[in-house]
Design goal:
Elements: H1 4-7, E1 20-26, H2 37-55, H3 62-72, H4 75-78, E2 84-90, E3 93-99, E4 106-110, H5 116-123, E5 128-134, E6 137-143, E7 148-151, H6 168-175, E8 177-178, E9 188-189, H7 191-221, E10 225-229, H8 231-240, E11 246-252, H9 260-291, E12 295-296, H10 299-307, E13 311-317, E14 324-326, E15 333-335, H11 346-356, E16 360-364, E17 375-379
Helix pairs in contact: 2-3, 6-7, 10-11
């Protein structure tokens, strides 16, 4: 299974030779709802085939569609779905992503990939990760306000404190015998030293987990990290952690005491204030820029500025699509009939342009957008 964080933006925003096939569908985690998912996938696959024939009736589309057909027949794959599915295919690339957020059904054939659903997942301000930690083990979750799912920790991370080998000093202290050497004297084994050895092993275990989470999860995703652990373990982990994405707020409970939905609810109560604050900050920055003439909600103007690298940040309406294309040479916008079979989404393309030029693109719920055009951009100059 491909990792979205690893591929985006470098691979997915690269130029690919068309036609580019983008397939999205909502999926289901559990039986019996998931039985309909392969059927809906095959329906979307038929739509892609029809669109390809309309685009170029003489083209042999079978080599392009073969990997998707194989995916549709992979029963093991469909038995382990999440809330959504994204499949991207060109002559040089095939990517499949299980998504934690449901997506609308889409089958698009165009000159570029349709990536706004992925942009929404990766750039939305409500995403976070949870490190559920105890001496018995470590688990990592990723979620948003709507869903939470466990993701695997990187290989090589010790599963629990039992997998952390005591060093020679720990073993010697743990086996040491205390007490008088006289006949009848009471001897006692090193209980205190055993506790010290366990504490040392716990520290090494937490440190190994911290390194793995930073390297394999926090740095690639740059998501805020919540710690869910007993209060005593919070202090120890924060003492040794070097993770710059670790939040001061935390879930002060043994993670095994909560269901995954209860954990999501607790986490969102903590995350929501910072989420709303970030959206307010982005909105305020746009209004300030617009007042000075360094911001705009005009789609054509923003598209040209994005292509030229002038956009520092852009807010994009999550629930809106505008059919059309951006001329890669001039930045001119061409509107199109949304019923056409091979039309890109202007908002999608604007977000991609901004990310390619080092700007920030954030997909925002419609009710939080500061404009009604679908876009709000703040310029660098």
């Amino acid at each position: 299974m491909n990792l979205l964080e690893r591929d985006y933006p470098a691979l997915l925003l690269a130029r690919h030779e068309g036609p580019c096939l983008s397939l999205y569908q909502p999926t289901h985690r559990h039986h019996p709802d998931n039985q309909q998912d392969p059927i809906r996938f095959h329906n979307l696959l038929r739509s892609l085939r029809a669109l390809l024939h309309r685009r170029d009736g003489t083209r042999d589309v079978q080599p392009l569609l073969a990997p998707l057909q194989a995916l549709g027949e992979d029963h093991a794959f469909w038995n382990h779905a999440l809330d959504g599915l994204a499949v991207l295919r060109s002559s040089s690339m095939f990517r499949v992503y299980r998504l934690q957020r449901s997506v609308p059904e889409l089958a698009i054939v165009a000159d570029t990939f349709h990536t706004k659903p992925l942009l929404r997942i990766l750039q939305s301000a409500d995403r976070y990760q949870i490190l559920a930690l105890s001496r018995q083990g470590a688990r990592l979750f990723e979620g948003n306000r709507d869903a939470l799912a466990e993701i695997g920790l990187a290989s090589g991370v010790p599963a629990s404190i039992d997998d952390v080998t005591m060093d020679a000093g720990d073993r010697e202290r743990a086996n040491r015998v205390y007490g008088p050497a006289t006949p009848g004297g009471t001897t006692r084994h090193g209980t205190a030293s055993m506790e010290s050895a366990v504490d040392n092993a716990t520290t090494r275990f937490f440190r190994a987990v911290d390194r793995a989470v930073i390297t394999h999860h926090s740095q690639p995703s740059r998501l805020p990290l919540l710690l869910a652990a007993l209060p005593a373990h919070h202090h120890l982990f924060r003492t040794i952690s070097r993770n710059p994405f670790l939040l001061d707020i935390a879930v002060d409970v043994h993670p095994d005491d909560l269901s995954i939905d209860a954990l999501r609810q607790r986490a969102w109560q903590l995350i929501q204030p910072s989420y709303l604050a970030r959206l307010a900050s982005l909105t305020d920055a746009y209004h300030a820029a617009a007042a000075k003439g360094t911001g705009s909600d005009d789609v054509a103007q923003v598209a040209a500025a994005a292509l030229n690298g002038r956009v520092a940040a852009v807010l994009i309406d999550a629930d809106r699509q505008i059919a059309g294309r951006i001329d890669a040479q001039t930045g001119a916008v061409t509107r199109a009939d949304p019923t056409e079979f091979a039309v890109d989404d202007l908002l999608d393309d604007i977000g991609e342009c901004v990310l390619r030029t080092g700007g920030d693109a954030v997909v925002v719920p419609a009710e939080r957008m500061p404009t009604r055009t679908g876009v709000a951009a703040t310029y660098r100059y």
